[in-house]
Amino acid sequence: MTTLRRRLAEARTEGRAALIGYLPAGFPDVESSIRVVQAMVEGGCDVIEVGLPYSDPTMDGPTIQRAADAALAAGTTPKDVLTVVRATAATGAAALVMSYWNPIERYGVAAFAADLAEAGGSGVITPDLIPEEAESWIRASDAAGLDRIFLVAPSSTDDRLRLTCEASRGFVYAASLMGVTGTRARVAGTARRLVERAREATRDSGLPVCVGLGISNGAQAAEVAAYADGVIVGAGFCQRVLDAPDLDTACERVRSFAAELAEGVRSAAR
Fold first, then answer.
1. What is the pLDDT of residues 24-65, one digit of tens each?
2. pTM for the whole thing?
3. What NCBIfam families does the database record attribute to this sequence (predicted)?
4. Which CATH architecture has domain 3-150+157-164+214-267?
5. Where are the chain's structural domains?
């Protein structure tokens, strides 16, 4: 059992959703990103998505693009991402990599899987990879014992949703709206229905369903936690680092934000 599956199971045993936070590795630089991740975990994150910064982030909104651009400007490499994964795993949180497919393919699919597993990573979220085109990744992740998280969206047909859930391991990522990442005043009304449809597709496997895109405060986290297995937050963490005058302040604000979200998911205990 990966650390991811163990942390999700522990949250379920406690009758609550897991809190999953995202931060690009190397933002604002490698060592500073490790400190921010540690603050996220101290605040209550169960799982950390370590972003592999990429120059063509088709799914990312302006906040995460700014964070990724800063990481790229600082010279962050895939090896640096693995350094952040190793530090994340050392906190006890589950460490995932969130990456578009091209950097993994260029690194070498089998080599990336093996190196990630060696660093203590639990798996990878691949937002632009679909199961029909993932044969090499399925082989490599199986060989390395990694979880593979694919995305479903409100536009997914029932057949597409079922295929994606069957190919996923760890959890299935329910993208709550059609659009790019970023905080929003309200959680998309499509989120609950998408989770219900995913639950139907995962009835036999019991695969957790986690929701991301648009969650910006503790009240929204509680709302989503009432029906999902995990609450995913990214832009809100990145924005607090972008707005902070220094690293200490950034970590303080990130820790406080994580605590607010953690309180939210726990207030929705089922």
1. 999 999 999 999 999 999 999 999 999 999 987 667 778 999
2. 0.94
3. trpA
4. Alpha-Beta Barrel (3.20)
5. 3-150+157-164+214-267
